[in-house]
Amino acid sequence: MDKSDITLERMRTFVRVAERGNLSAVARELGIGQSTVTRHLRELEEAVGVPLLSRTTRRVTVTEEGSRYHAHCALILRLVEQAGDEARGTRGAPAGTVRISCTATFGVLHATRLVFAFQDRYPGIGIDLNLTDERVDLVREGVDVALRLGPLADSSLKLRTLGQSRRLLAAAPDYLAAHGTPSVPQDLSGHEGIRMSNVAGGDTLVLQGPDGARHAVPFGGRLRVDHGLAAREALVAGRGIAPAHHWLVGDLLAAGRLKAILPDYALPSVPLSMLIVPERAGIARVRLLVDFLIERIGGIPGIEPPRAER
């Protein structure tokens, strides 16, 4: 084995192919041709002396030897990157790129502004912001940090609860003038509901009254949408009543374009969480972004502090 053939570039290519399982996707990510990716893998396997990947016409999988080698390569690459960060930190401002995945609607309305402010503070750091409501595999997609609304399953990622997103019922004044304003939860059954098709349990609303009693009421309607911005537009257009995050409609409420319905009855809040890939958490630019988001998220209207754990 010629150790000179085991380069960081070939290691990096192998690690990303092992994680993504797709040569063309890695080629696009790294900005190189697919033939270069194939050559890097072939030369690395020849240098190591064992097959690291198993290839078929449809997919690429990691061999047993490749799995062990991947763990070591990932560690080496992380240490190299951290060493570079520390060296640059002694001479100037942090640099490099951080990849963020964020819930789509929250990203459009709020995370983008946080990114702008972060880059104003750290102009040398690039941001690759991916907006999606899909639960993407952060390691596989090369994401460093993710912001997610809703309960999250246990995983190997570092989880930080940023706060609770407060929700309320809202409708346009024109809709209420035409159909009446509900005064108790049971009145909702006679109204048009705007429902989210990608949220479980949307056919029933659960509200907590001022006396602490829970009210579960049917919630129907002719319109379902799968994006928060579409629900926002439907509300403004007077298509019905919808449960909405305060950060989604707060500006419309303040402008009088929407009204809060049943303000004495509370909808369950939704956790807003940050997921961090553990192998990336120690990198200076990722750490700076994490600290910045923790500092700023609480300033968004409708995001309440995390609940104390019992």
Q: Could you explain the architecture of this structure?
A:
The protein is an alpha+beta fold and 310 residues long. It has ten helices and 15 strands. The strands form five sheets. A six-stranded mixed β-sheet has the order 4-3-5-14-6-15, covered by helices on one side. Strands 12-7-13 form a three-stranded antiparallel β-sheet. Strand 9 and strand 10 (214-218) form a beta hairpin. It is elongated. The mean pLDDT is 89.
Q: Which of globular, elongated, flat, extended, rod-shaped describes the shape?
A: elongated
Approximate strand percentage:
15-25%
Q: Helix- and strand-based class?
A: alpha+beta
End-to-end separation in angstroms reads 56 Å
In DSSP terms (H or I, runs of 4 or more residues), the helix count works out at: 10
Report Rg. Answer: 24 Å
Q: How many individual β-strands?
A: 15
> Can you tell me the residue ranges where pLDDT is under 50 for at least 5 consecutive residues?
none
Give the strand order of the largest sheet, numbering strands 1, 2, ... along the chain: 4-3-5-14-6-15
Question: What are the secondary-structure elements, in order, as H or E?
Answer: HHHEEHEHEHEEEHEEEEHEHEEHE
Oligomer: single chain
Helix content: 25-40%
Main sheet makeup = 6 strands, mixed
Mean pLDDT across all amino acids: 89
